[in-house]
UniProtKB/TrEMBL annotation:
<keyword id="KW-0694">RNA-binding</keyword>
<dbReference type="InterPro" id="IPR036482">
    <property type="entry name" value="Regulatory_HutP_sf"/>
</dbReference>
<dbReference type="InterPro" id="IPR015111">
    <property type="entry name" value="Regulatory_HutP"/>
</dbReference>
<keyword id="KW-0805">Transcription regulation</keyword>
<comment type="function">
    <text>Antiterminator that binds to cis-acting regulatory sequences on the mRNA in the presence of histidine, thereby suppressing transcription termination and activating the hut operon for histidine utilization.</text>
</comment>
<comment type="subunit">
    <text>Homohexamer.</text>
</comment>
<dbReference type="GO" id="GO:0003729">
    <property type="term" value="F:mRNA binding"/>
</dbReference>
<keyword id="KW-0369">Histidine metabolism</keyword>
<dbReference type="InterPro" id="IPR023552">
    <property type="entry name" value="Regulatory_HutP_bacillales"/>
</dbReference>
<dbReference type="Pfam" id="PF09021">
    <property type="entry name" value="HutP"/>
</dbReference>
<protein>
    <recommendedName>
        <fullName>Hut operon positive regulatory protein</fullName>
    </recommendedName>
</protein>
<dbReference type="GO" id="GO:0010628">
    <property type="term" value="P:positive regulation of gene expression"/>
</dbReference>
<keyword id="KW-0804">Transcription</keyword>
<dbReference type="GO" id="GO:0006547">
    <property type="term" value="P:L-histidine metabolic process"/>
</dbReference>
<keyword id="KW-0010">Activator</keyword>
<comment type="similarity">
    <text>Belongs to the HutP family.</text>
</comment>
């Protein structure tokens, strides 16, 4: 099992997230035969962040709605990314924190051996803090899971 350095799925998810030209980055991702989407979400509830990312991934054909293994892989990648954003404690409103995030989801085959299958990466970047304007700081998180 060898990860192809030119096909690092997490790197592409972060690049799509922070790119000055997301269309160019998405075009690069699609040239690899991969799929990607991005969007924004803000909430005091982690469940709304998860729902927004899952909805975008389904609408953009990153995961198929009827296949549990695909939704399951996406869910775990989202939760791993949220753990990075929230420093290991996936809590927001219950501890009076809110987030304003951009997200990116990338699906593809990052290994030289195609039998390793498809993987999914979720990256999050934005702000987290008290629900008071100006009382937030930057945050970033990434999660990767096999499908």
């Amino acid at each position: 099992m060898t990860l192809n350095n030119d096909r690092r799925i997490g790197r592409y998810a972060v690049l799509l997230l922070i790119s000055e030209d997301p269309k160019e980055t998405k075009d690069s991702i699609e040239r690899l035969g991969w799929r990607a989407c991005s969007g924004k979400v803000g909430s005091m509830e982690a469940s709304k962040v998860v729902a927004a990312i899952e909805t975008a991934a389904r609408k953009n054909d990153i995961v198929q709605t009827g296949l549990y293994r695909e939704s399951h892989a996406l869910y775990h990648a989202i939760i791993e990314a949220l753990q990075g954003v929230t420093r290991g404690q996936v809590q927001l409103g219950s501890v009076l924190r809110t987030v304003g995030l951009r997200f990116a989801v990338v699906r593809g085959k990052p290994y030289n051996n195609s039998e390793e299958g498809e993987w999914i990466a979720v990256s999050l970047y934005g702000t987290i803090g008290a629900p008071i304007k100006g009382a937030e700081h930057e945050t970033i998180g990434m999660g990767i899971n096999h499908i």
